[in-house]
Please model this.
Amino acid sequence: MQTISVLIVEDDDADRKWIRRLLSRTEYEVRIKDAVSVEQALDFEEPDVHVVFLDHRLPGASGLDFIAQFRRTWPKAAIFFLTGQGDEELAKSAIKFGATDYAPKSNLNQNAIDRMLKNGLSQALAQWRLDEQRRDLATFTEVLVHDFQAPIRAAAYLAEQIEEDIEDGDMQEAREGLRMLRKSATQMQEMLRSLADHVRLDRDEILSETTARDLIDRALTALDREIAESRAVVDVDSDALDRPIFCHPPQIAQVLQNLVANAIKYRGDNPPRIRLAAQFEEGNRALFTVSDNGIGVPDDQKDRIFEPFKRVSTHNGISGTGLGLATCRKFVSRHGGAIWCADDPDAVTSICFRIPAGSMGTNEQHLN
Model:
């Protein structure tokens, strides 16, 4: 039985109880949270709300004015807009502002609720996926238009210089030009790889069982050369390396790889010392931490580093697209988790992310 989290934003006690009763008879296992106002609803700390029943008339406000904000807060949720009476213009406005469906309270019955949940959940998920693809396409376009101009110009200039050096018989300068051309090509390859990771559209991947040991091994194996060349020391600290985790292993391994790669890239003057930790928390959640002794992240920038194209101001001169941590957040969010820059007295920088670990009885799960 699928478990869904439902938020009922309704100030009428009788209507709330009626909706609760109908929900209790559906095919879903339902976790319900009540709110009697928009303010109380937005204080709800559940990050993964699947369904919102939003009343039109609320104390001091109209639910219609807050549909867009609810959509931003819970982008995957099916939002059902409710009113005391049918109103076609109101229904059109609700859908326009982002509601999944509209229903007069007088029409609510078991069949209506069952239909709304079945259709609304799939519709909301499809809309979220479409919005994600649009954002990814915008990201792809922005990088191609902006970030690729400089290396392309550099490659064209170097090709001209190499041609001139060959004509002049200056093979030493020609070889140096070739070295710089290869470097420029490598930068473009790295940029494309980072971009491909960020705009990956494999949204229906089946979750599979793995372990923290396997995920960490995948990440460190991919970075074997970088670790050796930087003389990095990597310590793995975990008392639960072999406990099962249900996730999409390539994506979570990519998150760990990106975090370790950042620790190597932003290492400062000393060889990097990196610590990877994995532990299990209450509620069967896996918490990973990657800490390092690098140049650090200023306190006022710890939130913005996970946004696309946002790079720490002190990183001037270090190449990068600003998509690495944004990709990490994207992959972690798709697993229903969270990622953040933590305060750690034993490290300069410490990035943590938490994901649900799933259950031993899970045979087939999908990323949302």
Observations:
- The mean pLDDT is 83.
- The first strand starts at residue 3 and ends at 9.
- The chain has eleven helices and 15 strands.
